[in-house]
């Protein structure tokens, strides 16, 4: 965490917005501020849209249990949605394409067009074979360790989600805080 918070990238800002929004969700307080933080999380890094979705589902489940009101969901998600859409709207007005940032990543930064399953397949290939364009063995070993840890983390998250769903089905009660955190 200290490494990312020292870099001049968006990771530390993203972690701050994400954790702050989750704390407010868990405490069931200040839906407007939570919505602003969710929106800023999405603007900072598009992965924040997962938080946007997870907290929305959590609030809907809380509403079913009468722990959250519909007005709280609306109060949170109006600013979250407006902030989340601000960057694509800016790109549309400035460059004439709402997804100009993605196009620039593919053309100028040599990012590969892919999907989750294709990326997962190639990560497994890299970890378990020598099919990787490399200059030296050190790069290959480092990359394999990195990919292995990423795959292990993904499996752990899938396991935690399955555990939370199993608990919800077994106990017939919804623990939204832990499910949203996962």
Number of strands: 0
Percent of residues in beta strands: under 5%
The gross shape turns out to be: globular
Q: For the report, how would you describe the main beta sheet?
A: none
Considering the chains and any ligands shown, give keywords for the structure.
182 residues; mainly alpha; 9 helices
Please give a structural write-up.
- The protein has 182 residues and is mostly helical.
- Helix content is 78%, strand content 0%.
- Helix 2 packs antiparallel against helix 3 and helix 3 runs antiparallel to helix 4.
- It is globular, with a radius of gyration of 20 Å.
- The model has no long low-confidence stretch (mean pLDDT 79).
What would you say about this model in short?
The protein is mainly alpha-helical.
Write the SSE topology.
Elements: H1 2-6, H2 11-27, H3 31-44, H4 48-64, H5 70-95, H6 100-108, H7 116-128, H8 137-171, H9 176-181
């Amino acid at each position: 965490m200290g490494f990312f918070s020292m870099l001049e990238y968006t990771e530390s800002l993203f972690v701050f917005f994400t954790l702050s929004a989750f704390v407010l969700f868990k405490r069931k307080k200040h839906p407007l501020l939570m919505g602003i933080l969710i929106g800023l999380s999405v603007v900072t890094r598009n992965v924040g849209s997962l938080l946007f979705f997870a907290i929305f589902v959590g609030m809907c489940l809380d509403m079913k249990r009468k722990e959250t009101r519909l007005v709280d969901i609306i109060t949170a998600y109006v600013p979250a949605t407006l902030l989340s859409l601000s960057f694509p709207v800016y790109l549309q007005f400035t460059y004439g394409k709402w997804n100009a940032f993605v196009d620039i990543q593919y053309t100028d930064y040599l990012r590969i067009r892919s999907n989750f399953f294709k990326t997962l397949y190639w990560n497994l290939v890299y970890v378990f074979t020598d099919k990787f364009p490399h200059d030296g063995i050190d790069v290959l070993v480092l990359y394999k360790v990195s990919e292995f840890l990423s795959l292990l983390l993904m499996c752990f998250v899938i396991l935690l989600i399955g555990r939370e769903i199993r608990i919800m089905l077994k106990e017939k009660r919804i623990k939204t805080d832990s499910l949203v955190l996962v």
